[in-house]
Design goal:
- This protein is α/β, with parallel strands linked by helices.
- It has a domain at 3-167: TIM Barrel (Alpha-Beta Barrel).
- The protein is built from eight helices and eight strands; from the N terminus they run E-E-H-H-E-H-E-H-E-H-H-E-H-E-H-E.
- The protein has helices spanning 37-41, 51-60, 81-91, 104-112, 130-133, 145-156, 175-184, 212-223, and strands at 3-10, 19-24, 67-71, 94-99, 118-122, 161-168, 191-195, 232-235.
- It has an eight-stranded mixed beta sheet.
- The longest helix is centred in the middle third of the chain and has 12 residues, at 145-156.
């Protein structure tokens, strides 16, 4: 595991649990609005934590912490992710995975082996705008939207707790895009619209977030989709 960061205690990353968050390096996308650009573009430039170091910390805190969130970068790029999660489960932790959903074969394995308790999957945009939103314009021939679709269906039939979420950027998302996404993932247990906020670690400049009123308008659009009422929420507003 290429572990580049550890948030020792969080009340936000794992819904309903006091948790620690482990950050992995590398990603298969280049979303211009990504706020963890250093983990994506220069995964070898920062401090590296050994598995042993992380596991020793988690062992000491197991009476306080109730969950571990694995995020990134993109964790499913780590070949030894399943084995790492097994070690977390042996200690007694509930595990939440943050993923972009582009490795459905990895997600399926983790689900089949009952290694996950919660999954938060990013839905970057509607299908038509996915390539642009993940920073792969010019590589349309190699991008496979069916991978995202497979991961959506895997979660819908997984039997575990999960959420979908979209980071909303003015330059990339409008009302029609949010409507299409909500239609795509209809009947999911919860869908979060996350307000984009600029920071110094972004991959590209020129992205801006909606104001509170704009976010609330997008929320109303998503909630109008059949089956999504009372299941769509705002974050960061």
């Amino acid at each position: 595991m290429l572990i580049l960061g550890l948030n020792k205690t969080t009340l936000l990353d794992y819904p309903g649990r006091v948790a620690a968050t482990v950050f992995t390096g590398g990603c298969n996308f280049r979303c211009p609005f990504c706020h963890n650009g250093g983990l994506v573009l220069e995964p070898s430039a920062g401090d590296v934590f050994s598995e042993e170091e992380i596991l020793a910390f988690l062992m000491k805190r197991k009476k306080i912490l109730k969950g571990v969130c694995i995020t990134g970068g993109e964790p499913t790029m780590q070949a030894d992710l399943p084995e790492f999660i097994r070690k977390l489960k042996e200690i007694g932790y509930q595990v939440k995975l943050d993923t972009n959903g582009y490795a459905p074969q990895v997600l399926e394995r983790l689900l089949d082996e009952k290694l996950l308790d919660y999954v938060a999957m990013d839905i970057k945009n509607c299908r038509e705008k996915y390539v642009m939103t993940v920073g792969m314009s010019g590589k349309e021939d190699s991008f496979q939207i069916n991978r995202i679709e497979q991961s959506v269906e895997l979660l819908k039939h997984s039997g575990i707790d999960y959420e979908f979420r979209t980071t909303v950027v003015k330059e990339l998302h409008d009302k029609q895009d949010i409507f299409k996404i909500a239609e795509w993932i209809r009947d999911c247990p919860r869908y979060f619209l996350q307000q984009f906020k600029e920071n110094e670690n972004m991959i590209c400049e020129g992205c801006h977030g909606y104001d509170k009123q704009g976010m609330e308008e997008l929320l109303t659009v998503a909630q109008r989709v059949s089956g999504m009422q009372d299941k769509v929420f705002l974050r960061g507003v």
